[in-house]
Automatic annotation (TrEMBL):
It is a multi-pass membrane protein. Keywords: Cell membrane, Membrane, Sugar transport, Transmembrane, Transmembrane helix, Transport. This is Sugar-proton symporter. It is found in: Cell membrane. Pfam families: Sugar_tr (PF00083). Its main location: membrane. Belongs to the major facilitator superfamily. Sugar transporter (TC 2.A.1.1) family. GO terms for molecular function: transmembrane transporter activity. SUPFAM superfamilies: MFS general substrate transporter. It comes from the Bacteria. GO terms for cellular component: plasma membrane.
Amino acid sequence: MYVAQQTSETSGPKPHSPMLTNVIAAVAATGGLLFGYDTGIISAALLQLTRDFHLSTMSAQVVTSAIILGALFGCLGAAPISDRAGRRRTVMVAAALFLLGTAMVASAHAVWMLIVSRLVLGLAIGAASQIVPVYIAEVSPPHRRGQLVVGFQLAVVLGVTISFITGYLLRHDSWRWMFGMGMLPALILFMGMIFLPNSPRWLAMRGDMEGARAVLVRLRGSQEAADKELADIEAAHDVRAPWSEVLSDWVRPALVASVGIALLCQLTGINAVLYYAPTIFAGAGIGEQSALLTSIAIGVAMTVATMFGGWAVDAWGRRALLLRLLPGAVISLIVLGAAFVFGANGGIGIWIKVVAIVAYTVFNTGSLSVAIWLVGAEVYPLSCRGKGTSLVAASHWGADFVISLTTLSLVQMLGAGGTFLLFAAVNAFAFFFVLRYVPETRGHSLEELEARLRNGTFAPVDRQHAPQHAAATLTHG
């Protein structure tokens, strides 16, 4: 047990703990704002880029998906950096990459420059998606962890919405301004992170218990609360683990649940709508201006759904939220697909499509998009949390890469209706996946969730298998 020692750093008045935690979450979540803006702005910019650079369907998909390929490498590279240098410094690296990538893309004069600059932005997005939710989760108290980590996703959808509004307002100006607007939040993120503390759990993992306690006292506002939380952290006996630990039997339920949600978050089609809705709707005869306005409606729907999800993950629970909203996504996509299949192109037909796609956005974003980063940051033991969340982010970006590279081709092959009906089937599968593999994590500390992994009571499965799981994990305890 850790014995509390009075130090000069922890004596005297302390910052009010909820305020400091809120500041940390808000500044770190600026990485989510950049994440959303830089992925969403291509939706409007692509209409101009296609004309200026004479892009074919395939080259348009390559320019769009380059940022996703970069994100895939960025999230994998962020794991060892975050374990060695710390969560805070890794976020600062991501902010520097955001600045570099934004400057490059805004000054691009050839297709290859667009692709390379979006690869750099992807590195930043991948790193941010891997480390920001972990950093927020590790500084948050259990009763506020859901709300604060979902704040990262709220920042993402706010960034997407801002990108849609910016794209509409600048539709008659250069696409360079659309991309260049990302410089300001990148500067805010970099400068803000300089003044924030390291994660107390990362400090404890490195053996700096006194430093971890000092940070916890500042975060929780009392020495007693800090000592109790540090004792729980120390009792877990976590040290930095190799990659093989993430694949071990006792961690596998967390891997299946988190990676499954990450894959399904993309394979259910939300980013296909995000990237290509204006292109699909303009191709259906709605017109560019109306298509861009539809994107703004989608962005607003994403924001409202995420705000609702931020409340529901703590009021209902993560698992309950997913199971209640996913059926709505299935029904909305069936209606949308049918409207395209049966050629509902008149006035009421257009409204059916718009209402259906907005409804799908609400149900899908309010469930899977809200849960992905939260569950990924919660379920892994401290010893391999950085590596586990890297796999979550890599799965997300890998699936996103496939979706961004194939959506327009799917629309050409199956039609818009067939494509949306395919996504409806994947959303239905997601419901049954959650029912079988995703546990409820609401109200449990990170250390309690690790204990459930060790004793075989993590996954919502037949408890007759729990004794075997528990016996298999005794050597880890």
